[in-house]
Amino acid sequence: MFILYTIILYLHIFSVILAVGPIFVLFPLLNKLKKQIEFEKSIIDLVRFIVRLSKHAGHVLVTTGILLIWLGGWNWLDSWIVMTVLVLMCSIFFMARAFSPAIRKLESGEEGRDVLISKLKRSVIYYVTILLIAMWFMVQKPVLW
User: Fold this and answer.
1) Alpha-carbon torsion 1, 17, 141, 66, what sign?
2) pLDDT over 70 for what percent of the chain?
C-alpha cells in the first residue's frame, strides 16, 4: 500500500509541475507575440498547446489528489481539502472562460491584438495566483475550522 501511495504522490507532484510550469512560458511568448507578426500562427499554436497541457495535467492532478486523500485516510471535510477543492473549481471555471475565447478572438482578429494580449497576460497572472493558492492549501494544510 505504501508503494502505491508513493507512486500516486509522485504522479501528483509531476502533474503539478506540468499544470503550473509551462504557464510561465506564456509570459515571454505573449511578449514575442506583441512584437512580431511573422510567426503569429505558430506562437498562438504554442500558447494553445500550453493551455491544453496545463488543463490535462490538471485532470491528472485532481485524480491523483482524490486517490491520495482516499488512500491517506484524510477526512473530506478537513478545511484544507475543502478550500483546495473550491480554489481548483475556480481555476477550472477561470481557465475555461479566460484563455480559449481570447485565443480564438486573437486568431480571428475580432479585437485589437494588443488588447487581447494584455487580457491573456492578466489571465496568466490570475491563473498562476489561483494555482499558487491551491498549492499553499495542499502543502501547508492549514486548519481553518
Assistant:
1) negative
2) 97
Task: Name the H helices within 36-78.
Answer: 40-72
Which amino acid is present at 132? Answer: L
pLDDT computed for residue 2 by the predictor: 86
Q: In whole angstroms, give the CA distance from residue 42 to residue 53.
A: 16
Rounded to whole angstroms, the Cα distance separating 14 from 61 reads 8
Walking along the chain (145 residues) 10 residues at a time, the average pLDDT comes out as 92 93 89 74 87 90 93 92 90 80 81 84 89 90 90
How many Cα atoms within 13 Å fall on the side-chain side of residue 7?
Answer: 4
Per-residue confidence (pLDDT) for residue 98, from 0 to 100? 82
Question: At 74, is the secondary structure helix, strand, or coil?
Answer: coil
CA distance 15 to 11: 6
What Å distances lie between residue 60 and 55, 106, 107, 133, CA to CA? 9, 29, 29, 18
Q: How far is CA 80 from CA 15, 92, 100, 128, 141, in A?
A: 19, 18, 30, 19, 5
Give phi and psi for 23, each to the nearest 5. -60, -35
